[in-house]
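Support request, please re-run this one:
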Amino acid sequence: MRTEIPKVLHAVLGRPMLAYVVDACREAGVADCVGVVGYGKDQVIAAFRDDARVQWVEQTEQRGTGHAVLCCRAAVLNKYEHVLVLCGDGPLIRGETIRQLVDKHLSASAAATLATAVLDDPTGYGRIQRDAAGKLLGIIEQGDCTPEQRAIREVNPSYYCFRTADLFFALDQVKPNNSKNEYYLTDAIAILTHAGRSVQAVTAVPPQDVFAANTRQELALLNRVMRERINDRHMTAGVTIVDPATTWIDARAEIGADTIIHPFVQIDGPVRIGRNCTIGPFARVAGAANVPDGATHAPIGGAPR
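Re-run finished. Output below.
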């Protein structure tokens, strides 16, 4: 992305990508989060300084996803029976998908469970390898796939749930025998399978949620997808959005039914807007603003009345 800003801090609708992942975890009932930081660690930690429930662990060498999780050993082993492992740059993740993953993991008493997606174009993602009966065998990274394996459309979006002891049992056996000479977290799945421990997979991730941003153009597209998702949620709940294409609403905002949002409105922050309000056009409501029922919010520079 040609940037000095850590990727997880690039904004989607004005908030860091990582904030959406943390929010989804909280929505799914996950109380504590451990963030693995490396490049730009001070910027990342500073961005979340007001969230005491996020603990930070530093990966001093960038040696792959498996190594990143190994850095968390002291923070999670013997403290949590089960752990989720998620990517910080996947802001489209949903709390309901995390819950589905956890429910599958616990009901199956599995050592590891992953949520998969089926894509028309799986390029760039690790492929899910199954046997003829559909049993999960492992995950093959894109760079290590044969031509036949590249044709597999079921992919790994990197949503994992592990029994903690099984996770570190497997990671201690991972070797960097791959094209990048890195320690892959995905190898832990094959190790657990070969050890006879239960590994499950649930196809729970909608294809549109897999999208991430590796370029500025993709970041713009990610903003559009998130904007459409949030606007749709409010319209389904009874809010009129006259022109969704010019309306930007923060994911934390609350808006009452029968409120009308006119074109070119930006709602930025944990704003609370009551019922039967009129917002805009050309208005910005920001911060911890509380717009009472029946109010009209004037254009930029004005005040609610």
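The chain is about 25% helix and 25% strand. Residues 7-205 form a domain with the Spore Coat Polysaccharide Biosynthesis Protein SpsA; Chain A fold (CATH 3.90.550.10).
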